[in-house]
Amino acid sequence: MNKVTDLTLDGDVAVITLNSPPVNALSAPVRDGLFDAFTAAVNDPAAKAIVLLCDGRTFIAGADISEFGKGPSGRALQDVQALMENSPKPVVAAIHGTALGGGFEVALTAHYRVAVPSAKVGLPEVKLGLLPGAGGTQRLPRLVGPEVALQYLTSGDFINSDVALKSGLVDELVEEGKLREGAVAFARKLVAEGRPLKKVRDLQDKVEAARGKPEIFADFRKANARRFRGFDAPEANIKCVEAAVNLPFAEGMKEERRLFEGLMTGSQSAAQRYIFFAERQAAKIPDVPEDTPVLPVRKVGVIGAGTMGGGISMNFLSAGIPVTIVEMQKEALDRGVAIMRKNYENTAKKGRLTQADVEKRMGLLTPSLDLNDLADCDMVIEAVYENMDIKKEVFAKLDGIVKQGAILASNTSYLDVNEIASATKRPEWVIGTHFFSPANVMKLLEIVRGDKTAKDVIATVMKLSKKIGKVPVLVGVCHGFVGNRMLAQRQREANKLVLEGAMPWDIDRVLYDFGFPMGPFAMSDLAGLDIGWSKDKSSSSTLREVLCEMDRRGQKNGRGFYDYDEKRNATPSAEVEKIILDFAKKQGIERRKISDEEILERCIYPMINEGAKILEEGKAIRGSDVDIVWINGYGWPVYRGGPMFFGDLIGADKVLAKMKEFQQKHGDDFKPSALLEKVAAEGKKLHQL
Ligand code: 3HC
Known about the structure:
By secondary structure, the protein is an alpha/beta fold. 48% of the residues lie in helices and 12% in strands. Helix 18 (417-421) links the parallel strand 14 and strand 15. The site of 3-hydroxybutanoyl-coenzyme A (3HC) has 25 residues, from strand 5, helix 3 and helix 13.
């Protein structure tokens, strides 16, 4: 036995305790320790039953992801599982925290499982581009049936203990905080009652019942095609469940191994595993240590009850933090509050909230028409019109109203946070919090650090954003920060390509096929082409202006870059095609055929280059932070790892060569950043900077 496992006797029950912080992941020492401990417990004549328990915050949270891709070392997990399953004495897994992935697969090889009520179990491998590779895909369907197994395996969702109990994933719940006693008592009961050694692998009824019913799988694939689009792992998980239904256990295990290895060596899982760690890394700020004191935020103020202000408020209400929301006009305030209520009620209709939850959340909201009502807030977030003068005016007013020691945040998406802060006498308390629309849904929060923003303010907002379910990324002051600054590159090229020869739907198709939820033109139609456009000032100088002049305003009036039917289905518009051809002619542009490859490279490579520039200027801390922004804020497909990771997959040298080629043909929009040149020359990786 090594120092991560401990074996003690509690009367006639052997208790194996695993202690490998932070999450008891199945690293080589853990597998070795478990193997030795189970061997000793099985061979100890004084032990009549064996309990596996974990110290610390959780039961085993899975394989050690950081080991993946490295050479084999230590005992195979399967050896530990074989010892457990074939033990002549009952083995009980005692679960608290989260039993996930390989951890839950270990529990599934125990003869019985007990858990505390707060525990969760699950097989989240699909989120890492994988499938459970230690028998999970074969055992789960035997316990819960293939239909439910398909849901769990392809969503990776965690399962609460009450649901786990009902579906037989867990055999008994024991009192919170008394797991050890409860598990030992349960084990003793098994021995006293002579209960059989239940092996999940031997259960047949649920898989047999599904045999000869291929429609179970066909229907599931069809119903989820959209959700699984582009991803390899869901299909591999489905194939494993098919194997569980159609093949004997041992054969199913072989199929699981074969498919697991295929995923493990592919680029999708590499990208998704990278993102798992990148997201956690983004929370770490080199000069703001982990133990920086955080300020209590018990009450939040939001200025502006529009789409953004309302969405921002909902994040806090959902986390149980009271919000005072301020608008200038009563009508706008009432409308904003009504929309928030409606959003919650829609969620309740889908069964994801109770009406009591809706009332509780709305009960935490105080609508107001008076900025003075924000005086006692611990944090105030301004979400008014994106205009520097207006923002400065609001901040100057806030400075005179809000108590000292409160955080003043701006939800600006482009503007200079230092200049906004300069309108107050307390710039160290000012920070940018750039939410993404819809703000109650989108995970990303760009946190903008001003020159004077205090470290405890940064630490507080980083921690708070986690509390409200966001993925925070700290960025520096620059126009558009990380996300919008890179987006501008893509948008510029998309617009140019349309004039040079591509159609909006060609560009949208290429980016959709790349994995984005929609392309830039479909996106513009959704947002409205007339945002920021006014008839009086329109001068037909851009394609967008011409479209607005022709009353093509986007989805909202059924006509934008596309034509829309009453169900908002888009079709390419012949009228738009003609407008584009005329416009290009007027500009003296000779159109040419543009390949899909060029569309992709022209749209994506300048973004990678801009990402490198952002890093060069120190506006993002690391390359992986840039990727986290794009995955969580702009629908970049997670299986492609973000623009920096993707750039490395292509090769920084190849991206650089293309940028130079484009620079020759199309000018300095493609001027390579010094950092891209350096990375390419030194053979480094952008995502590891
Ligand atoms: N392997 C290695 N490190 C892990 C890990 C894992 N499986 N799970 C978590 N960690 C690390 C994190 O990187 C983090 O490290 P850091 O402090 O240095 O940043 C630390 O543990 C704490 O993690 P979180 O910050 O995520 O802590 P939370 O309390 O918020 O969440 C958790 C805990 C729910 C367990 C979450 O970490 C999680 O979801 N982990 C991944 C679970 C998972 O995907 N398991 C399946 C792995 S694949 C597998 O098992 C294959 C098998 O089928 C063969």
